[in-house]
Structure formats: structure tokens, C-alpha cells
Backbone:
């Protein structure tokens, strides 16, 4: 009777084959993980591309707005380059014709959110405004192309002093105002 009331302090030992997962079970788990990754990663890349393209359009609109403000504030036409729209280096906080503080320093440097921005003055330079280091222009071409096509963005964008944003599905750079004007407008 005493033997029936007593329990063994040692747990029942596992027999061979019951001490872990089988190779088949591990392979099934790995296959499920790979299937989920195959579904999720392309969606993540598409989301990143869409976000980068939206950011590029937003940055271009900020540059266009900054260019109009620059041309009405200073007697120097449209800015000579992107850097003229940005802040001064260091901790300076006085807006001038050469550093108008109209866009952030990252965009003024020419690249942000997977896109490279280029600003080119078009036509003959205007007469240099008072206090300006470089002459502005009567027109410009602004372009944005993906830094890594297919990964950071698919479309390229461009605009001129008209302010109409246009896009190219191939991601190619619009090398002139005429090439930009021939592209589809962004709605």
C-alpha cells in the first residue's frame, strides 16, 4: 500500500525519437516562414517606393514654392542653384540672397528620401541683385530621379518655372525643358 501512494521523484525519461522536433517538422516551419517572407518583402518594397515618390513630389513642391518666394523677395530672378534656397552652413540664421532658408539643408544638398534633385537655371542670367553672390535666372528646370531605380523609386519627376509637376514612368532624367514639358502632368 505504501508503494501505491508514493510517486517517483524522477520524471518519466523520454524514449529515443521523442526528445525534439523531427527534421520534417523543422523543414515545414522554415517553408512557412519563407512563404510569408516572399509575400511580405515585395509589399514592403512597394510601400517604400510609394513613400519615397510621395516625398520626392513634396520636396519638389517645396522647391517650386521656395523658388517663387525667392524671385519675389530678392531682385535676382529665380535662384541660381538649390544651395541658394537652403540655410547657411553652421548656425547662421539670417536669410540672404545666397542662403534664403526656404528649403531644408538636406534637399538643398541635392538628395533626400531615395531621390536625387537637380536644379538648373535656364537662359541668360539676370543682373545680379544687390547683396547676391551669383546671378539668378528667368527660368529653371528641376528634376528628381531615384537614386536606386526599382528600390528607392520607379518614376522620375520634373518641373519648370510653370510649376507643373510631370513624371516619367521609366525613371529617366528629363534633360531639358522641352523634354520635361513633353511628359505627363502629375495630378
Residues:
Amino acid at each position: 500500500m505504501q508503494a501505491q501512494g508514493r510517486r517517483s521523484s524522477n520524471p518519466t525519461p523520454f524514449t529515443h525519437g521523442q526528445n525534439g522536433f523531427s527534421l520534417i517538422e523543422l523543414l515545414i516551419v522554415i517553408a512557412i516562414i519563407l512563404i510569408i517572407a516572399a509575400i511580405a518583402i515585395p509589399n514592403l518594397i512597394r510601400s517604400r517606393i510609394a513613400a519615397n515618390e510621395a516625398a520626392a513630389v513634396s520636396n519638389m513642391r517645396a522647391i517650386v514654392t521656395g523658388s517663387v518666394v525667392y524671385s519675389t523677395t530678392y531682385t535676382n530672378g529665380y535662384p541660381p542653384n538649390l544651395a541658394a534656397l537652403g540655410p547657411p552652413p553652421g548656425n547662421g540664421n539670417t536669410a540672404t540672397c545666397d542662403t534664403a532658408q526656404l528649403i531644408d539643408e538636406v534637399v538643398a544638398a541635392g538628395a533626400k528620401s531615395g531621390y536625387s534633385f537637380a536644379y538648373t537655371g535656364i537662359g541668360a542670367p539676370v543682373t545680379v541683385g544687390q547683396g547676391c553672390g551669383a546671378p539668378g535666372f528667368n527660368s529653371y528646370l528641376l528634376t528628381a530621379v531615384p537614386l536606386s531605380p526599382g528600390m528607392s523609386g520607379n518614376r522620375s519627376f520634373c518641373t519648370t518655372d510653370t510649376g507643373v509637376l510631370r513624371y516619367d514612368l521609366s525613371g529617366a532624367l528629363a534633360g531639358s525643358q522641352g523634354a520635361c514639358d513633353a511628359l505627363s502632368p502629375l495630378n
